[in-house]
Amino acid sequence: DQQVKQNSPSLSVQEGRISILNCDYTNSMFDYFLWYKKYPAEGPTFLISISSIKDKNEDGRFTVFLNKSAKHLSLHIVPSQPGDSAVYFCSGSSNTGKLIFGQGTTLQVKP
Amino acid sequence: NAGVTQTPKFRVLKTGQSMTLLCAQDMNHEYMYWYRQDPGMGLRLIHYSVGEGTTAKGEVPDGYNVSRLKKQNFLLGLESAAPSQTSVYFCASSYTSGTGYNTEAFFGQGTRLTVV
User: Fold this and answer.
1) Residue A46 belongs to domain with CATH number
2) Which domain holds residue A68?
3) Any chain A CB within 8 A of the CB of B101?
4) Which residues touch B58 (CB under 8 Å, ≥6 apart)?
5) How far apart are alpha carbons A84 and A1 in whole angstroms?
6) CB neighbours of A93 closer than 8 A, spacing ≥ 6?
7) Average pLDDT of span A5-20
8) Quick one: which of B48, B23, B20, B22 has its CA closest to B33?
9) pLDDT score for A82
């Protein structure tokens, strides 16, 4: 059972426009959600997070929204830049320590 | 600080051989994780540990064993390698915040394992 789902394998946007990456989860025990970015041949790196008691967290060009009733997260990148081209992973964490990731979405930002 | 270091970076095994992947972190993190990354499957949790001497199964634990004898090290073992275990393996570590949330995880550079 896939506890974290990223149903869009890829996304292509023009430089300067908004990128919206979506994520759904099924585990009600998740209380913290994190987005990671991964370049080829490198390990994932942390991007932004949100706790389950909030519905929005913003850090520069990156904003994460949480709709707890729908068990849905989204990551907004505005404005998108070519250097944002990477694979983005959504993850959910519970107080048991378990950290579960989705399948990832490959973002391509075209100049 | 080195962060999270994985050894080795590449390895080719024959079916049935055994090996151990080593993960070392120098950030005094409580939590450590082993993931495998396969095309279209994302990062799947193999095993994890919430402290020295403790381990727990993740999403895909079969065929793997782990040990956390020291806080800074987390070992992943393959007793009898199979071609289905060909993958890129990532180790990660994290700590809990004062409110109990699992904070951001720091990842190693990965180990590319091929089983022939």
Assistant:
1) 2.60.40.10
2) 4-110
3) yes
4) A98, B33, B34, B35, B44, B45, B46, B47, B48
5) 30
6) A30, A31, A32, A33, A34, A99, A100, B101, B102
7) 97
8) B48
9) 97
Is residue B106 within 8 A of residue B25, CB to CB? The reply is yes
Are A98 and B105 within 8 A, CB to CB? no
Total domains present in chain A = 1
Report the residue from B102, B106, B108 with minimal CB separation from A97.
B102
Question: Given pLDDT bands bounded at 50, 70 and 90, which one contains residue B104?
Answer: confident
| Closest by Cβ to B101, choosing from A46, A51, A102 | A51
B49 CB-contact burial (10 Å; exposed 0-12 / middle 13-18 / buried 19+) = buried
Distance CA B77, CA B48 (A): 13
Average pLDDT (A50-57) is 94
User: What type of residue is B44?
Assistant: R
Amino acid identity of residue B47, one-letter, is H
Residue A73 near chain B (CB below 8 Å): no
Is the pLDDT confidence value at B97 over 70? no
pLDDT class for B2, splitting at 50, 70, 90? confident
Smallest CA–CA distance from B10 into chain A, residue:
A41
For residue range B42-96, list pLDDT tens digits in order: 999 999 999 999 999 999 999 999 999 999 999 999 999 999 999 999 999 998 7
